[in-house]
């Protein structure tokens, strides 16, 4: 991480964690119920709600990640000269949306671990975890309706429109991703593959967080379009690097099951590159493993070896860097203050330079 960004991150991380914990405290309470329902006096068993939906909601809030989504929202709020303290619900929403997307992502992938801990659906079961993700999705709109944020009617409308679109478009992108694995498609045009990442991964990784921070801070439509491009490309690069880490983690603290994408038969950029470049024998063997729901580590390592043989990891990392270069060119054209442009460029570069 660039020293400038590291200093900013160190200065903000405790504050961001506090804001998130304030919005989503340890236990469900009457105040949260009032926020959710916009009225008080309901006879609802708070302890049952806490167990049945709230604790699954909090699982990935509790098992903390790096808080990069609220950090990105904060960068844009400050980059336009506004105080984050005035927009605390926005900072919390950036993390809540990311967390609710991870619950569904882990269910779809039949994942076992997230951040080194059992996944939400492993702890609470698929029905409760899925319901919790849905509840989180709609809870963010209740947070938006709080009146203490200094937002115009136009900004509030823009925030609602943006989040609704992001939620919907993520579902379309996920459908494509799941469909290609299910139908065992091995030749997907590059532009179509990138489009599915722009729908799916870009949304819940960085685009929603960048957009809500910029909207709350008062960015004009031209800047919002540029920020959309910046954060979309960040999401593509992130997904490319994440696909690499799924098979070859940068550090032992990866926190997920290694080789999960191969077990699920994912047609990742690594696979698509190798399918194009490999000999018929290697291609057939790789696809056989991908379609075999394999969990044996020896066989998974055999598949990784085939990918390495055709330089898939280097090729995908190189592509990720080209997306970051394009992303940085977009942020340069915004009205964000110069110091924060440098931080946002450093943030983008970290996406491909990170080890985890």
Question: Can you describe what's shown?
Answer:
By secondary structure, this protein is mainly alpha-helical. It starts with a helix and ends with a helix. A hairpin with a 2-residue loop joins strand 1 and strand 2. It is globular. The chain is built from 17 helices and 2 strands. It has a single domain, classed as Farnesyl Diphosphate Synthase (Orthogonal Bundle), CATH 1.10.600. Helix 4 runs parallel beside helix 10 and helix 5 packs antiparallel against helix 7. Strands 1-2 form a two-stranded antiparallel ribbon.
Topology:
Elements: H1 3-23, H2 30-37, H3 46-62, H4 68-79, H5 88-108, E1 113-114, E2 117-118, H6 120-124, H7 126-144, H8 153-183, H9 190-199, H10 201-217, H11 221-247, H12 260-263, H13 269-277, H14 280-290, H15 297-309, H16 312-331, H17 338-353
Antiparallel strand pairs: 1-2
Helix pairs in contact: 1-5, 3-5, 3-7, 4-5, 4-10, 4-17, 5-7, 5-10, 8-9, 8-10, 10-11, 11-16, 13-16, 14-15, 16-17
């Amino acid at each position: 991480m660039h020293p400038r960004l590291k200093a900013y991150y160190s200065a903000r991380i405790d504050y961001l964690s506090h804001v998130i914990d304030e919005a989503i405290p340890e236990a469900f309470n009457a105040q949260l119920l009032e926020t959710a329902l916009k009225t008080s006096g309901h006879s609802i068993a708070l302890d049952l709600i806490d167990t049945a939906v709230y604790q699954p909601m909090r699982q990935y809030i509790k098992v903390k990640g790096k808080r990069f989504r609220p950090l990105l929202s904060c960068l844009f709020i400050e980059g336009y000269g506004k105080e984050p303290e005035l927009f605390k619900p926005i900072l919390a929403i950036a993390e809540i949306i990311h967390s609710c997307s991870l619950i569904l992502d882990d269910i779809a992938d039949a994942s076992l671990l997230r951040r080194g801990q059992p996944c939400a659906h492993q702890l609470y079961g698929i029905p409760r975890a899925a319901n919790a993700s849905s509840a989180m999705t709609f809870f963010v709109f209740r947070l938006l309706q709080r009146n203490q944020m200094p937002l115009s009617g136009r900004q509030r409308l823009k925030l609602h429109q943006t989040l609704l679109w992001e939620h919907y478009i993520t579902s379309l992108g996920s459908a494509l991703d799941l469909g290609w694995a299910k139908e065992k498609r091995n030749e997907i045009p590059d532009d179509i593959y990138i489009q599915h990442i722009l729908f799916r991964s870009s949304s819940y990784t960085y685009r929603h967080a960048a957009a809500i921070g910029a909207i709350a801070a008062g960015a004009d439509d031209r800047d919002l379009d540029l920020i959309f491009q910046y954060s979309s490309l960040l999401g593509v690069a992130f997904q490319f690097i994440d696909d690499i880490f799924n098979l070859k983690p940068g550090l032992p603290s990866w926190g997920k099951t290694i080789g999960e994408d191969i077990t699920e038969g994912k047609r990742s950029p690594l696979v698509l590159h190798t399918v194009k470049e490999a000999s018929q024998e290697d291609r057939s063997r790789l696809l056989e493993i991908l379609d075999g729901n394999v969990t044996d580590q020896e066989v998974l390592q055999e598949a990784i070896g085939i990918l390495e043989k055709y330089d898939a990891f280097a090729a995908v990392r190189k592509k990720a860097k080209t997306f970051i270069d394009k992303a940085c060119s977009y942020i340069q054209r915004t009205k964000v203050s110069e110091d924060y442009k440098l931080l946002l460029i450093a943030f983008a570069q970290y996406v491909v330079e990170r080890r985890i």
